[in-house]
Design brief:
The structure is a single chain. Helices cover 36% and strands 10% of the residues. By secondary structure, it is of the alpha+beta class. A two-stranded parallel sheet has the order 1-4. Strands 2-3 form a two-stranded antiparallel ribbon.
Length: 165
């Protein structure tokens, strides 16, 4: 990691977030440096959907070079469902699979348009990635698989459901 200029931070620390944003802005301003690779979903899911992107990746400005990645599970499944398998079982299954095949599509560069905010830009990038990979777009955070759903989120969905009825 020291040889490739990683930017490490603790997501829960607000001071770290500001420091990371500053480091990323300095990095992209220096044209001699290589582009930064960011996984804005923040987690891996089951290869069927693209979940909400963390907006911080899109707040720093610059050009986004989207990449769609989708595993082909015909020879071996790279996805780890931690509710079904222990880490040891997952590693054993991964190491004994025939192959781990991954389709990667490098998509055209994208820039935030003047009329869109950061979230709209992130959603536009996410939609392009999902369309290329043949995946559905989900509006919620991938971190929900490890956390309790906020009451406010439940209430919002309940209100929407009541309006439908």
């Amino acid at each position: 990691m020291q040889t490739s200029q990683h930017v490490l931070f603790e997501r829960s620390e607000m001071k770290d977030r500001h420091l990371v944003r500053k480091k990323i802005q300095e990095h992209i301003a220096d044209k001699a440096k290589l582009p930064i690779l960011i996984f804005p979903e923040g987690t891996c899911i089951n290869n069927t959907s693209v979940m909400m992107f963390k907006k911080g990746s899109f707040e720093v400005g610059g050009t986004i070079h989207p990449v769609a990645i989708k595993y082909d599970s015909r020879f071996g499944d790279a996805f780890w469902d931690s509710t079904k398998y222990s880490m040891l079982t997952y590693i054993f299954n991964l190491l004994t699979s025939w192959a781990v095949v991954c389709n990667v599509w490098y998509l055209p560069p994208m820039v935030k348009e003047e009329e869109e905010d950061t979230v709209q830009f992130a959603n536009r990038v996410k939609a392009v990635i999902a369309a290329q990979g043949g995946m559905s777009v989900l509006p919620w955070d991938g971190g929900l698989k490890r956390k309790k759903v906020k009451e406010s989120f439940k209430e919002e969905q309940q209100k929407k459901y009541c309006q439908i009825l």
